[in-house]
Write a structure and sequence with these properties.
This protein is 75% helix and 0% strand. It is mostly helical. It has a domain of 72 residues. The relative contact order is 0.10.
């Protein structure tokens, strides 16, 4: 009798473990963190708005699929899409930030070049001008051949 009871309890435990779905999905959590990171970036609205919206849409779909106990493959696929959209958005934000840095560096370069030209012009103005010295007039002498 004890053997049957232990067997029944063991089978019931195995079946209940198989029937329950996990309370969390690591890929879904990773996608959620990535989307939140992108959304927290102030440049995301300007540089990656469409990527952010697509990431949020895919994340919401993955959340719904998880809540509805859809197959893990479907949840993982939607979470993967959300993750990739968020990563694409982060790349666009990084590109926009790099472009801003290049523009600032070019402005700084132009400012420095202008200052250098102004200093050079000012230095030329402050140099004493050399006085014009009269040049001795050269007389053209025509060679005379055979003339005495």
């Amino acid at each position: 009798m004890k053997k049957k009871l232990i067997t029944v309890i063991g089978v019931a435990g195995v079946l209940s473990a198989c029937a329950s779905t996990p309370q969390r999905n690591d890929q879904l959590e990773q996608a959620r963190a990535e989307v939140q990171t992108l959304a927290a970036n102030p440049m995301a609205q300007q540089a990656a708005n469409s990527d952010l919206e697509q990431a949020r849409t895919s994340l919401n779909q993955a959340d719904s699929a998880f809540q509805q106990k859809k197959p893990p493959e479907q949840v993982n696929h939607l979470a993967y899409l959300a993750l990739r959209h968020a990563q694409a958005g982060e790349a666009r934000v990084a590109e926009a930030a790099a472009r801003q840095q290049v523009a600032k560096a070019q402005e700084e370069r132009n400012r420095i070049q202008l200052q250098a030209r102004e200093r050079e012009t000012q230095a030329r103005r402050q140099r004493p001008r050399p006085r014009a010295t009269p040049q001795p007039q050269l007389r053209a002498s025509w060679p005379t051949r055979g003339r005495s």
